[in-house]
Design brief:
Blueprint (H helix, E strand, L loop, with lengths): L1 H35 L1 E2 L2 E2 L2 H8 L1 H34 L3 H14 L3 H12 L4 H9 L2 H4 L6 H10 L2 H8 L8 H9 L4 H29 L3 H7 L6 H10 L6 H31 L1
Antiparallel strand pairs: 1-2
Helix pairs in contact: 1-14, 2-3, 2-14, 3-8, 3-9, 3-11, 4-9, 5-12, 9-11, 11-14, 13-14
Length: about 280
């Protein structure tokens, strides 16, 4: 009887969470899948055929993958060295840096866009100063392009990635470093052969988070470039709130494609994680 009461108590405890998952995740997902196969009330595959036949949608997928993968890979490299430096710091400055990272990791959306426009926009502070002193690379900086917008994607990869990687460095024991030093193994050799392989499951998990964070970003690129640059999240929203014609079926299909890309990436990364965990 006691076990039965405990089981009931556990079920009641997780019941609110189950309702949230059901009504805010499962129901919208099923509805989106159903709508992706509908066009004006009739079943069809035209929505998916259009995505993979029309250049505008293929370009949106390609642009989203390019800016997501490049910002994720470069961000992960920067995050690795920042987390390494923080893991070695034991003073009060570490708390200051962690507070700064927590603050900047929540700085996104409209405030982030306005901040970058103020600093690096056409009439941004740094751009105007660069024009005044004749610093050509920054004076001609175009924030409203794919390459210009890349810096914003990289910005919101760094705080999150550093915070996620910081605990991963705890897996690398000091004894291993000392043993490697005694065997005349340099720091670079230690990290390549021991440190990074041990940390790889955590690094790949961080890569998953950064990839998902970047590929679904909407508000910042929309405020910067609107429809002048084709990106997958912007195309999805346009299908539901378009001024000329709303196409929820095509928008749902684009959402499924975005979800499929993310799940494929996570699946491949998890396979790599299992390989390193076994090794």
């Amino acid at each position: 009887m006691k076990k039965l009461k405990k089981a009931r108590g556990g079920v009641l405890f997780f019941l609110p969470l189950a309702f949230i998952i059901l009504f805010f995740e499962c129901v919208p997902l099923v509805s989106m899948i159903v709508k992706s196969f509908l066009d004006e009330g009739s079943l069809t595959l035209d929505n998916y055929l259009q995505i993979f036949q029309k250049t505008v949608y293929l370009t949106a997928i390609r642009n989203s993958l390019w800016i997501t993968l490049t910002s994720t890979f470069l961000g992960l490299v920067i995050d690795f060295f920042l987390a390494m430096a923080l893991s070695r710091d034991t003073g009060k400055s570490k708390s200051l840096y962690l507070s700064l990272l927590n603050l900047t990791s929540t700085f996104s959306g409209v405030p982030l866009t306005i901040a970058f426009i103020t600093v690096l926009g056409t009439s941004g502070v740094f751009v105007l100063i660069s024009r005044a002193i004749g610093f050509t690379p920054l004076s001609s900086y175009n924030l409203y392009s794919m390459r210009g917008m890349f810096i914003i994607y990289l910005y919101f990869q760094i705080p999150m990635g550093t915070l996620l990687l910081l605990p991963v460095f705890d897996k690398v024991r000091k004894e291993w470093k000392e043993a490697a030093t005694l065997m005349n193994a340099g720091s670079l050799r230690f990290w390549i052969q021991i440190g990074i392989p041990v940390m790889m499951p955590g690094i790949l998990g961080t890569f998953n988070m950064l990839f998902s964070n970047a590929i679904a970003a909407y508000s910042t690129p929309y405020l910067l470039v609107n429809n002048s640059i084709s990106l997958l999240p912007i195309k999805i929203v346009d299908m539901f709130v378009g001024d000329v014609r709303q196409r929820p079926g095509l928008g749902s299909a684009l959402s499924i494609v975005l979800l499929g890309i993310t799940l494929l990436q996570i699946g491949l990364t998890n396979l790599c994680k299992k390989h390193f965990e076994k090794g």
